[in-house]
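@channel anyone free to eyeball this complex?
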Amino acid sequence: MTTGDYRPLRHMLDVIVVLVTRDQKSRYRSTAMGVFWAIASPVLFLLTFYLLFKVILPLNIPRYASHIFIGLVIWGWFQGSVIDAVTCIVGNAGLLNQPGFPVAALPVAAVTSNLLTLLLTLPLLVVILLFDGATIGASVTCIPLLILCQYVFTLSMAYLVAALNVVFRDMQYIVPILLQVGYFATPIFYDIGAIGGTARSWLELNPMVSFVGAYRQVLIFGEWPDWAAIGLIMALSCLTLLATYRFFHGARLRFLEEI
Amino acid sequence: MTVALQITGLGKSFRHRSQDEARTFRQWVAGGFRKSRSGGRFWALRDVNFEVASGEMVGVIGHNGSGKSTLLRLLGGVMQADEGAATAAGPVNGLLELNTGMHPDLSGRENIVINGVLAGLLKNEIDDRAEAIIAFAELEEHIDQPVRTYSSGMKLRLGFAIAVHVDPTILLIDEVLAVGDLAFQHKCLNRIAEFKDNGCAIVLISHDLGQVRQMCDKVIWLDHGRVRAIGDPETVIASYETAMSAETAIRTRTDIADRVLPDGTVLKAGENRLGSQEASIRSVMLLDQTGRETARIAPGNPVTVRVELTAERPLPGAHVSVSFTDAEGRICFDVNTENDAVSLPAIAGDIAITLDIDRLDLGPGAYLCSLGIWQKGWQYAYDLHLDAYPLEIVGGARLQGVLSPPRRWRISAGKGR
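replying in thread with the prediction:
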């Protein structure tokens, strides 16, 4: 082939692009509402939580609509990626047979496709922020960095669950339960400030707490995020990604035997 | 000639799954976090040595479970060998499962890009080849329709067309050459021959011994993971076929009662009735065009062969064969469900299979019909009735030829000089 040493890398990128496009197109083409499905789910939850905790049992969180919506879409990206990653190996057995197919692209595609779904909700997020009178300042420029950090963290989890599900087939049932726990352990509809003491320290071990908090600081209040926490998470995520990728890579050639 | 694939001492073992092995996280936790490895290992493939040169095509034959697919996976580098190595001199491409990446809701054109990339091409390479692929698949009119509207033949044609536009230097093919109608199959085989002429090294797995004989330069016969024979196609296939009929002989049950057929022929196990009897032929009827049972038809008339089968347990993937032999023992007509791309449902209980022959253009004379039901991999027969059902083609004397199609003679004045 002509393109030399870069070919495997270019091919892997093309594979990711193709898998993401296939996922996105098929997700929105087969339904009459199309792209609106991407925002229908967070909007529905937004309305529910708004009614519950603003009208019925007020939690007194400022700019509550923005607060929930950020929590929902940020958590939604993580949850969607991990759910898709669990079955990405078992569900694509045919591709594993293909000589030269970059198996490592499958979890990347799962995370990337769900990031696109998140990006589709951005216009609505802007509308809600404006409606809430959020302060948007220069700190908004660090959003891409936050997304990158969360991407690395999510991908490290994606590699882990993808490889684990090949060994333990019930991972695809366990992971949704763990995610359900994570959903409540992340301040999506409540505020972390309302929790004190040791409980809060325990909750803050969950990186998603810091992510959701950082996006809110930036988008709602125009503040800069807590760089120490984000930096620490980024460093740890990189290490975890390295470890889980190696685990995935080592298990890669055994996938076909186990499926 | 340069060596494209070098296989030395290749071996692959799998673990026998023991009953108590943790297959789920729950069992693993309940078992005290021990991943039981107690199950012994068995060799799915061992001591395989051969090489494939550029421009050479090697056929791999053997029963189901003989290690053919494992060999192909090791050659493709998607599985790790436990012994020895398979070294490829260049990138390896596969013609394996054709439609794996396709999405039914997307159009044929979109699926070309998807499947092309998944098969190893870059996106811009596919853009250059898309028109050629569409033309090859003969799908110009449907290419922008969603693939779910395609017939299964159209899908296979598209899958094949994409797969053969990868410019392989080493190509692995697994049983996919029987795609679509005859004309398309011919096109596929031509394309493969073209690859070969351009120096592509090819490894082909096939159950179609005729195809292997015709296309391959060398044949490897795998038997329970070992190379039983390797060499020129004629010799290896001949010994494979001998072993296969021996397999039927070994499995033939002789403890079943003789059956007297309506015309007086006696079916005697071990003589004109062979097979393991896991499935058995209860009755065979030859019917004329009015649906009446018959033993005499005129040349060129239709005839229907109706077989009633029964099996005690479900037998998936079985094949049925029908043949006619003339008085001299020549096989004049020989068909089977696999060759005609008819897949039988898993035979369980009673089932009737009917073969309608629109015109049996055999010359006048006495013929005997043989019927067989075969194991999935043609390894042995479940039940085989040899030369048991007579059919006479009436109308004049028997001459030398086999065929007697409908015909007219015309006599008219010559043109002169």
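from a first look: Chain A has twelve helices and no strands.
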